[in-house]
């Protein structure tokens, strides 16, 4: 196919649409229309017309849904989303203050694909797409919406693969901290501890996995304490530290949480409350060497008096 102007695209796309709008009682050739749409979309993609190519893919996805082929529909929807996102990134390079209409359209395509997976009970695939959407939104600076999609991803796999859900919930908490949504971060961290606790109840005698689940709870408690410090809720922060100490002493006796972390963290909270910046910075540096999660390091830095 030679070069294609916007007018030529409109004519070709309209021709395919008209072919779909057959007279009553005539069978619609969705399979044939899908092939034509994909061919047109491929030509447009080669010419660098990503938005028009995406439109063809979205139409092809709709044809596949009419054929009750949800997995193929999802595949075409994801292809459309990826084309639109590539166009969005290109526009961001040219015009940083762009309106991001292609990003919004890409999310719409992802959601259509997710719905196709959900209708086929492919929950893990739907979760993976929610995670992909969240990653793209975070990359575009929309941490708040990214957190919402990470929640959806976690909810779909919470029962069957709680370890994956825990990782997604933690990412959601990180995005909420990035967006300064402290209430949302606390809710996410409480959810993380709850999922880990329920995972422990199902593990029975798997010692290694149980320890990792208990460590997940400890990490959630620590992060909640630090969020309380950021908010200046000193009593609540100390209550959370007491819960962390009790949990670590009982469930993680071989770890350094209750013997090394707790004294340093207690001193750190005291320094932050007293607005003793130099002491707080010194303790932050020591704690940063001990903690393992980026979320903890981010929160420690936010707690230091300015």
SSE layout and pairings?
Elements (H helix, E strand, L loop, with lengths): L5 H15 L9 H17 L3 H17 L3 H25 L6 H19 L3 H17 L3 H15 L4 H17 L3 H22 L3 H24 L3 H18 L5 H17 L3 H14 L3 H10 L3
Protein architecture, described:
- This protein is mostly helical and 306 residues long.
- The protein has 14 helices and no strands.
Q: Outline of this structure?
A:
This protein has 14 helices and no strands. Helix 10 runs parallel beside helix 14.
Quaternary arrangement of the chains shown?
single chain
User: Low-confidence stretches at least 5 residues in length (pLDDT < 50)?
Assistant: none
Percent of residues in beta strands? under 5%
Number of strands: 0
**What is the element string, with H for helices and E for strands?**
HHHHHHHHHHHHHH
Terminal CA distance reads: 62 Å
What's the overall geometry?
elongated
How much is the radius of gyration in Å?
25 Å
Biggest sheet descriptor: none
Number of helices: 14
What is the residue-mean pLDDT, rounded to a whole number?
89
Q: What class, by secondary structure content?
A: mainly alpha
User: What percentage of residues falls in helices of 4 or more residues?
Assistant: over 70%
């Amino acid at each position: 196919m030679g070069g294609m102007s916007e007018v030529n695209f409109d004519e070709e796309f309209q021709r395919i649409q008209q072919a779909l709008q057959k007279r009553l009682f005539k069978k619609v050739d969705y399979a044939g229309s899908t092939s034509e749409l994909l061919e047109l979309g491929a030509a447009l993609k080669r010419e660098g017309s990503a938005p028009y190519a995406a439109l063809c893919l979205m139409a092809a996805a709709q044809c596949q849904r009419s054929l009750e082929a949800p997995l193929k529909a999802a595949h075409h929807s994801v292809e459309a989303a990826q084309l639109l996102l590539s166009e969005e990134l290109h526009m961001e390079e040219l015009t940083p203050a762009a309106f991001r209409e292609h990003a919004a359209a890409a999310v719409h395509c992802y959601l259509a694909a997710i719905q196709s997976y959900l209708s086929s009970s492919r929950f893990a695939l739907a979760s993976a797409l929610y995670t992909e959407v969240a990653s793209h939104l975070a990359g575009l600076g929309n941490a708040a919406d990214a957190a919402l999609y990470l929640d959806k991803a976690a909810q779909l796999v919470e029962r069957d693969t709680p370890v994956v859900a825990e990782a997604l919930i933690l990412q959601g908490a990180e995005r909420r901290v990035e967006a300064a949504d402290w209430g949302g971060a606390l809710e996410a961290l409480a959810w993380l501890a709850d999922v880990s606790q329920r995972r422990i109840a199902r593990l029975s005698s798997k010692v290694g996995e149980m320890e990792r689940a208990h460590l997940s709870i400890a990490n959630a408690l620590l992060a909640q304490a630090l969020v309380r410090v950021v908010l200046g809720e000193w009593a609540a922060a100390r209550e959370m530290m007491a819960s962390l100490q009790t949990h670590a002493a009982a469930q993680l006796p071989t770890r350094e949480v209750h013997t090394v972390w707790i004294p340093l963290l207690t001193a750190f909270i005291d320094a932050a409350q007293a607005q003793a910046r130099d002491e707080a910075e010194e303790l932050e540096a020591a704690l940063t060497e001990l903690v393992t999660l980026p979320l903890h390091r981010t929160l420690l830095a936010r707690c230091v008096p300015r």
